[in-house]
Amino acid sequence: MIQVNIQLKRDNFDVLVNETFGMGITGIFGPSGSGKTSLMNSICGLAKPEKGSISINGKKVFSLDEKLNIPVEKRRIGYVFQEGRLFPHLSVEKNLRYGMTKQDSSGLFNKIVTMLNLGHLLKSKPAKISGGERQRTALGRALLSSPEILLLDEPFSALDANLRQQILPFLLKIHQSFKIPMLVVSHDITDLLKLTNNICLMQSGRVIGHGEYHELVRKPNLQHIFSRHSLINAISMTVSRVDMETGITQLSYGDSHNWINVVIEKSRLNYCKGDQIKIFISSDDIALSAKRLPSVTIQNQLDGVVREIIERENLRLCIVDVGFPLLVEITAESAKRMDIEVGYMVWCLFKSVAIDVAG
Ligand SMILES: Nc1ncnc2c1ncn2[C@@H]1O[C@H](COP(=O)(O)OP(=O)(O)OP(=O)(O)O)[C@@H](O)[C@H]1O
Q1: Burial zone of 247 (CB within 10 Å; 0-12 exposed, 13-18 middle, 19+ buried)
Q2: pTM, entire model
Q3: How much distance in Å is there from the Cα of 11 to the middle of ligand 1?
């Protein structure tokens, strides 16, 4: 657990944060210049706040009152930057071993090399490997310093879409295996949602929201922070049936009578009944209908009740309870024409191909 209660002077404002970050993964999201990096730098000791205190797993690493400021290298924090920051003259292996503090009696080096699939790169120099491989090396180096927490500042931004997809599962694997708090900064909410639904929103040096993404997006005072295209449904579901021939995979959610069909390419069709899977559907890829449509190609037709309608300029964000909350964005004109109100029964329609599957 990370407890932060600080004031840090910046050029345009003070970063004022009083927040606790739990053992899971927290996504730090906010516009450019909102103070995300300043917060990370304060936690790791690269920036010294004017006031306050910081504790990691109950141990103070900074306290102005107690005149305590544990140096960066003694805070037991793994920090991965946007561009990895590897030593260019050292091989991947030497970069990995650089931060190791003690004798590797438990075989941690081999475990991390295997987990991050770095075995074939150990002799290579950073300039000779891809951006994704460099980022995996930086992650491995951070983990080999036996950190108590992991901070990742824009770990995906130097990577193209394909490499991002490759690094995300590694981050999840790391979290499952090491079970340490992870703070991940990104200005791409979809990337963050692939890792966690626990989001901390920053603006002008303040935390303006912290909690479950679906709860944050329905708060009228936070609408401005999510750009129109970033309103995405991120839902963890259970695989209930897999058709190996067609790739059609049926997903269920708790006791809900609604299920979702998603088409997964054969090369990635390695799911079994009972597996957990996270899917993403953009809120504007979902249409609403007053009735079920029997003769259309749209595979997914989920019935539900409109629980909330939030105004977003000329759009309306409907929160539809289909057994789980589904964000559906329609135009104000459609909402008026269909006479949609809170409490109405509706059908949510979306194609299987509109669904993105994590990993
Ligand atoms: N060392 C510094 N001293 C004073 N002000 C700083 C310092 N570093 C950054 N700032 C200012 O503090 C503000 C917050 O910067 P910060 O890098 O923390 O934001 P950010 O949310 O991480 O931005 P980005 O997403 O663009 O990386 C900016 O206005 C920046 O110019």
Answers
A1: middle
A2: 0.85
A3: 8
